Amino acid sequence: MNEKTNRVYETIYKEIRSKIFAGQYRPGDLLPSESQLCSEYSASRETVRKSLKQLEQEGLIFSRPKVGYFVSTPNHSSFTISFQEGAEGFTTHFCDVHGIMPDKLLQEKLDIAPEQKVIELCQLTTDANGTPVAFDMKYVPYERAYPSVESEIRYAVLPDITLSKVDSFDYYTTIEISAAAAPERVAAAMRCEPGAPMLLIERTFIRQDQKKFGYSMQYCTGAFGKLLGSSGVVFKQ
What is d(CA 79, CA 157) in angstroms, rounded to the nearest whole number? Predict the structure, then answer.
């Protein structure tokens, strides 16, 4: 696209988007046809379609074959959550790295046999005063090609030690968040009473062929366990 065509594309895209957010086009409304938009903006059909496809990709509109484009209904009960392992002002370091035989929970979460060895990586996160705020237990199935010496994996972060084996789009992550009582092992690391209330964040790393290659449990205090999420589409001017 040349510069003039790009300007027209941006104009169509932004004006329709603005009208949707302003309520001039409401959920379920049929947008003007491609032919009408071509005439209104003195644009080619290719330029109009590019603008509409951009709006469709953002979830603002949807198409019905041989009918046209309609304004979508926003789903405010569906949230996109942003989760980061680290945060400014906090320090994370490894406490322990070793191989274990999986219990029933790990067998289920990683979909592995009882005799399949697992690498366990434990991390402790502290605040600026050295107070523990989070304890992580991360697990990956042990394979001969994985690092087997503690010094080789001590500074790795799940799933970094396996990502070299997995293409960027060959896996996805599920997350489960719940309230939990700190088990004795976690309480000892966090210097709190067993049973203390915690936020538990569980993540599972899954390849597109549905093979699970990583699982983690993070117990957090209120000072650290915050998740940010939003629903709908954010209107950026």
Answer: 26
